[in-house]
User: Fold these one by one.
Assistant:
Number 1:
Amino acid sequence: MIKEDNFITPIPTRWIGPIHIKGADGRLDQEVSVPLATYESPLWPSTARGAKISRLCSGINCTVIDDRMTRSVALRSKTAAEAHEAWQSIVARENELNDIVQSTSQYAKLVDLNHQIVGNLLYIRFEFTTGDASGHNMVTKAADALLSWILANYNQLEYSSISGNFCTDKKVSAVNGILGRGKYVIAEINIPRDICEKNLRTTPEKIVQLNIEKNLMGGIIAGSLRSANAHFANMLLAFYLATGQDAANIIEGSQGFVHCEVRGDALYFSVTLPNLIMGSVGNGKSIPNIEDILNKLGCLNHDVQSGDNARRLAIICAAVVLCGELSLMAAQTNPKELMRSHLLMERQENK
Amino acid sequence: MIKEDNFITPIPTRWIGPIHIKGADGRLDQEVSVPLATYESPLWPSTARGAKISRLCSGINCTVIDDRMTRSVALRSKTAAEAHEAWQSIVARENELNDIVQSTSQYAKLVDLNHQIVGNLLYIRFEFTTGDASGHNMVTKAADALLSWILANYNQLEYSSISGNFCTDKKVSAVNGILGRGKYVIAEINIPRDICEKNLRTTPEKIVQLNIEKNLMGGIIAGSLRSANAHFANMLLAFYLATGQDAANIIEGSQGFVHCEVRGDALYFSVTLPNLIMGSVGNGKSIPNIEDILNKLGCLNHDVQSGDNARRLAIICAAVVLCGELSLMAAQTNPKELMRSHLLMERQENK
Amino acid sequence: MIKEDNFITPIPTRWIGPIHIKGADGRLDQEVSVPLATYESPLWPSTARGAKISRLCSGINCTVIDDRMTRSVALRSKTAAEAHEAWQSIVARENELNDIVQSTSQYAKLVDLNHQIVGNLLYIRFEFTTGDASGHNMVTKAADALLSWILANYNQLEYSSISGNFCTDKKVSAVNGILGRGKYVIAEINIPRDICEKNLRTTPEKIVQLNIEKNLMGGIIAGSLRSANAHFANMLLAFYLATGQDAANIIEGSQGFVHCEVRGDALYFSVTLPNLIMGSVGNGKSIPNIEDILNKLGCLNHDVQSGDNARRLAIICAAVVLCGELSLMAAQTNPKELMRSHLLMERQENK
Amino acid sequence: MIKEDNFITPIPTRWIGPIHIKGADGRLDQEVSVPLATYESPLWPSTARGAKISRLCSGINCTVIDDRMTRSVALRSKTAAEAHEAWQSIVARENELNDIVQSTSQYAKLVDLNHQIVGNLLYIRFEFTTGDASGHNMVTKAADALLSWILANYNQLEYSSISGNFCTDKKVSAVNGILGRGKYVIAEINIPRDICEKNLRTTPEKIVQLNIEKNLMGGIIAGSLRSANAHFANMLLAFYLATGQDAANIIEGSQGFVHCEVRGDALYFSVTLPNLIMGSVGNGKSIPNIEDILNKLGCLNHDVQSGDNARRLAIICAAVVLCGELSLMAAQTNPKELMRSHLLMERQENK
C-alpha cells in the first residue's frame, strides 16, 4: 500500500454541521457544512453539537477585524545610530518600497512596516495584503526584493537574514497578535438559557465561571502568552488539513481568546482569533479533493473581490472553532460528562 | 470523489533520508528513512539535505532527558488556607493516589504532582508515565478517577474543571517546558567545516551568528516564550501526521531551542525539544498505513520495555527536526539561496 | 545638602492604616500600621482607603503557601548525554549537596533542585530556605560552594556561570512562579455589599467585571506573563523601600494575580503574590530607621522560629498590596472618580 | 527619628563615575558623574568599574530610538462588529482626538493610537509625547478627556476602564516593547582586548559566550519575556530613586537586551532599553535634593527643546545600566571573582 517515494497519508475526515454562519456586514447568512480531518474522532460529535447550537440560536456572527501577512528581515549595522538613521530613511520611502513589492506579484501590496533595533541589529517587519493566498511565498518573494533594494541603497547595512523571526511564522509570539498577522476574526453567539440547559447540559453562569477559572486564570498560571482557550488547536488543525492550509500555522492560530458573559437570561459566547493564516489559493489548494472542498465551502467564487474568498474561509474557520470550543467547555462544566462522552464516542468509532 | 460523511484527506507524503541516528546509550546506531506528510513540498528536499549531512558526519546523537504526560484539575475552596491545607494533605498521600491511577490503566503510573493556588482556587497537575501511548486519554481517565477521589475525601473542595489549563494541552505555555510534558529529547551533530562549506554552502561561524541574531534575539524581540528556532513546527507537523500522532500537540512541541557552537574547525549543532507528545499506540496508530509506517520505523517492536517504542519514535522525530532546521538555517545564511531554491523546488513539484 | 560621595536620597514616607491582618493559622489577628516610601503621594490615601475597608470587614486573611530562595548555575558539557548523566548523578547526591550548603551558613538549607538541559548546556537551579534573610548573598555563597564541588567531582562539566538566569533574580520569568522563589503569600477579604457601595463607591459585580476585562483580558492581550493585576508594583516598591528590602525584586514580586468573586451579597477579593523576596535581616536592615520600622512591624521578634519574622513581613506586605489594589480597582469602576481623586490628592500634597 | 505620620526613608546614595557619554548626534560628549541610591552597596564599586572602562575606551555611545507615553482605555460594546465599526470611525478622527489632548495640557500630543478587540471588548491604546515629564498624569488626564468624548460620541460603547492594562504601566508585557512606551535608548561601547583583560579580567570571547549561555538561553528557558540581561533592574532602581523617578516603572524598564560581538580584537558591548519611563519634571522632581541632582546631571537646561532634558536623563541612565551590566558580566566569567568581590565590598561597607 505504501509506495516508497510518493504516497499519501489518509487523514480520516467528516463533514460536520451545517453551522449557521452570519457575516457582520450582513452579506453572509448561510448554513455551511464543514470538513474536519483528524485522527481524534471525538472532535466530530463535539463540534457537531456546537453546530447544532448555532442552528438553534439563529447563527454565529463573524467579524473580520484585520487581514495582512508579514515577513521580517534582519540587517546588521556597525552601530545603533547607523541602524536608526537607515530605518528613518527607509520608512520615509514607503512608496518606493511598495513599487518594488508590486513588481514581484500582482496581489502583494505593502500596507505597513515596523521595526526593532537591538544594539547594532535592525529588524524590519514588512506587512502586506496578499489577495486570496495565505501569502507565505508571496511575502518571501517581496521581502527578498525589498532586502536586495535595501542592501543596494544602504551601504551601512549588511545582510543578516531574509527572515529575522520578528515576522513571525509558525512560532509562539506576542508580535503577531499585537501588530497583526493573518486574518483577525471574531465569532460570537447568544445562547438562551433553555438551550444552554437542554442542549449543552450547562448554564450561562457555569460557562462564564469555567472560562475565568480555566481559560483565563488557568492559562495565566501556566505561563501562557496571549492565549486563553480550551482547545482552539484541535479545530484549527482539522479544518486547516481538510482545506489544504499549511497547518503548521496553527501555532500562532491557536493563540486566541474566549470571552463570554451572562447577558440577561442568555450566554454571550465569543472566540477571538487574531492570527488565522489561511488562503483559498496556493500550495495545497490545487489537489483535486481540496479544490472540491473549497468549492463546496463557497471559497472559489470568481465574482468577489480579491481576498474575499480567503476571508470567507477564515470566517467559516472561526465559526468551527466556536462550535468545538463551546461544546468542550460545556462538557467540562459537568464533572462526569467529559470522560464518559469521550469514551463512548471512541467506542462507537472503533466498532 | 468526496463521500459526504466519511472520507479521507490525502496528505502528500514522501520517504526522506535515510537519516543516520545514534542513541546516547549506544543501543541505537542506524540509518532510518522517515516519512513526511505535508502540503509544503520544499520541506522534502530541505530535510533530505539535512539527512545527507547526518550520513556524512557519522550520525545525529539523540538523548532522551525525560518522559511524562500530564493533566491538571481545577478545584474551588472557600479560602486559600483551606486550599493550602487540602493540597498538603493530598500530596502526602501520593501512594494512595498512585493506586487509584493504576486501577484505571495497566500502563499509567503517577510520577509527580505539582500545584498552584490562586486566591481560593487550587490547581493540581498530575504527572504520569503512560507506556507507549502519548497518553491523552489515559491521563484524562486517571485524572477523572483522582478527581472523584479528591472530591469524595475533601469536603472543602468543589469541582471547577477536569482540565484546569495548568496541564497544559495544545496551548502555548511555560509550564510544560519547566515541569515537563511529553518526551524531552535533544539531537546533536558535529559537522566539519568542509562539509559545512561543500554541502551546506555555509560556515560554522555563519550558522552560529544566524542562530544568535535570528533564533535567539529575533525570537526574544518577537515576544516569544521558551522558543528559539526557525521552523521546528514544519518538521513536527509532517512527521506527526505521517505517524498517526495528534498533530495539535505541535503547539507545545514547537517550543524548543537551537544551540550551536564553533568547536575547533567544526560546527556543533543541536536541537532541544522538551515537549514531544508522541506515542506508538493509541488513536490514529491502528490505521493500516500508519501501522505499516510505525513498523518500518522500528517502533512496534515487541521485545522492548514499555515506553521504548514511543521513545524511539521521539528520537527519530528529533533527528528529523534537526535535519530540517539545519538545512533552512544554512539556506538563510545565504542571501539569495533561500528564495531561489524555494522557487526551484516548487517548479519541480508542479511539473 | 548633597555631600559629593556619600549622602542619602530622602524618600517621602508615611504610616498608613492600621490594616487589620489575620494569619491563616489563627496566630495573627492584629491591626498593623504600615510605612510606604514613595514619590507618588496619591498612593497614601488610596492604600489608606483599603486599610479602612480591612478594619470594617474584620480583617484581611493571609496565607503563606511557600518560602524558598534560589540560585541557578550554568555548566557546559561536551554533549547532552554527558550533561544528562552528570545531572542524574548530582541529583542523587542531594544529601551531600546539603552538607556543603550547610557548611556555608547556619541558616541555609537545600530543599530542592531542578534542571534544564539545552544541547550541551546544563542549568541547575538550587532551592534553599534562608531563615529570616531574603537570601541573595546566602544562596550565592551556597551556590558558589556547590559549583566548586561539582566542578571538582565532574570532569565532564566546565564552568559557564555562577548565575545562569534560570534562578531568576530581578527579571521577568515564568520559572519563579512555577518552581517557586521567595514567599508565596495570598491575602483575602470578604466585603459586604453595603461597604462596597458606601466606602468604595462600587459594587461586587463591578469589581468582578473590571477584574475580568482589565486585569485578566487586558493583561493577556498586552502579552503579559503570569501577571494579572492593576498596580501591585506601586505598593511593593513603597513597602520594600520603607522596610529596607532590595526593591529591584519587585520585578518578580509584581507578577501576581487578583481573583475575586461575587459571594452571596458580598465581594470576595484576593491578591496572590507568589514571589515576595523579603527579609527581616540582611543588607539594608541595620540602618537605624529601618530597624525601628521592622521593630514596629513586629518583625524583629526573638521568640519565634527562624523565618517567622520574614514571613510575617511578607504577610503584612501582601495585605498592603491588597489594600492598594482594591482601592484603585474600585476607583476605576467609576469613570470619573479616578482622575478627579488623583488630581485632588496631588493638589493637597502640593499645598 | 521617625515621626509617626510624615518622615523620610533615607536611601544610601553615592556619586559614581564619571562616565564618559557620547550622544549619537554628536551634541553630547561629556564625562558625567551619576548618583546611585541603593541598599546594595556592592552596586557602587561594580558600576564604578564600568564607568572607568567608559573613560578608558573613549566613551559610551547613546542613541534615542523613540520617545512616547501611553494610556489605554477599555470600552464595552454589544458585538465585535459594533466595536470594530466604532474603532474605524475613531481612528479616522485622529485630528479631533489630538485637539482634545492638547486642550488638556500644553505638552501632551497624540502621536499614534492602536487597538485590540476581544469579543465585544474594545481596547484603545493612545500614544503621546509628553515633553520633559514621564507623563503618567498627563496621559491619564488626556485619556480621561478622550474617553469622555468617545462615550459622548459613540452610543454603542460603554465605559469599562480608564486603564485597560493594554497601556501597560508597571507590569510585565510584550506590548510596551513592540508598540513603544517610554524612551527607547541604546548604549554601546567598544572595548579593546587589552582593556578587557587588564581592567575586566576577562576576554571579548568570554563575555560573548556568557551572554549567549546566560542572558539569551538562560533567560529563554526561565520563560522570560522580551528580556535578556543579567541585572538591569539594579541600576535602574538606584538611578530612578536618586533622580526622583517613579521606580515602579523598572518593571518594564528592566525588559531589555544585551547584545555583544567580538569585533576584530575588541569587544562590542551594547544594552538596549526600549522602555525607560523617565522625566526631568513632575512628581518627585521638586524635592530639593532631587532638583540639585537633576541640575548637576545637566537635565534642567532651559535652553533646549521640550523633551530634551528628559531624553538626556534617559541617555545617562542607559549609560549607567551599561556600566553595571558590563561589570557584573565580566565578574561572572570568572568562577571565583564574583563571590569574592561581593564579600569584600560588603566587608568594606560595613567597616
Note: The first strand of chain D starts at residue 7 and ends at 23.
Number 2:
Amino acid sequence: MRFEELKRGMKASISKRITAEQVDAFAQLSTDYNPLHINEEVAQKSVFHHRVAHGMLVASLFSAVLGTRLPGEGSIYLGQDLRFVAPVFLNDTITAEVEVIELREDKRIVKLATTAINQDGKSVITGTATILVR
Amino acid sequence: MRFEELKRGMKASISKRITAEQVDAFAQLSTDYNPLHINEEVAQKSVFHHRVAHGMLVASLFSAVLGTRLPGEGSIYLGQDLRFVAPVFLNDTITAEVEVIELREDKRIVKLATTAINQDGKSVITGTATILVR
C-alpha cells in the first residue's frame, strides 16, 4: 500500500493455529531449545504446566501482517516493541492484528499498534511497530 | 542461571550464518511472504538490491541466547524492543549478543541490552530485553 493511502484506524489481521510442529521448527531455526518450549516433561514442572510457544514465533505473525497486508509491499521494518503478556500454548489459535495509530508524512513513517489475542480473546502480546513505507 | 548469580556487565552471544533456506523456512513458518525476503528479482529493484532476511528471524537469535545461555533456563520473556538499523543479507554471519544492564531484585527482573552485528562489525539490530528469572 502507498503511504498516501494509509489512514489512522486502518486494521488488518491474520489468524494461525500454533502447532507443536511449528514450535519445533522455530526451535531449530532460532536455535532456541529452551526446554519450556520443546520438552513437555520439563514444561509441566514450570509455572506454565505445559509447553509454551516461543514469544518470537508468535510475534512473527506481526511481521507477516505488516509485510504482506498493512502496509504490505514496500514496507521497511524499522522497529518493533513487544510485551509478552500471557503464554501461548500448543494448538492455541492466535489472531495478530495491526492498527495504524500514527502517520508522519514528512518521513513516510507509520506507527501501528500490534496486538495478538488467543481463541478466548485474551491478549498474549501487545506492542507497536514502526514502518517506513517507500 | 539463578537470579542471584546475575551481575551487571555479564554477556553472552551466539553467531549464525543466515542462509536462503532459513529465510524460506521462516517465510513459511511466519507466513511472511514479503517478496523483499523471498524473491531475488523483486528485491533487486528495491532499495536493498538483494533479498534481505526477515528482521524477526534475526531477532529470534536473541530469544535463543536469552533462553539458553543468559539468563538461560528459568527465563520468562516479558518484553523485547527491537530497532532494525541495517539490512541482513543472505549468507551474512550474525552475532547476537546480550548484556545485563539492570537488575530489579524485588521483582527478579533483569533487563539486557540486545545487539546483533554482522560479519563486518556493523550493528543490524539494537534493543533491550526484559526477563523474569524464576
Note: Chain B is about 25% helix and 35% strand.
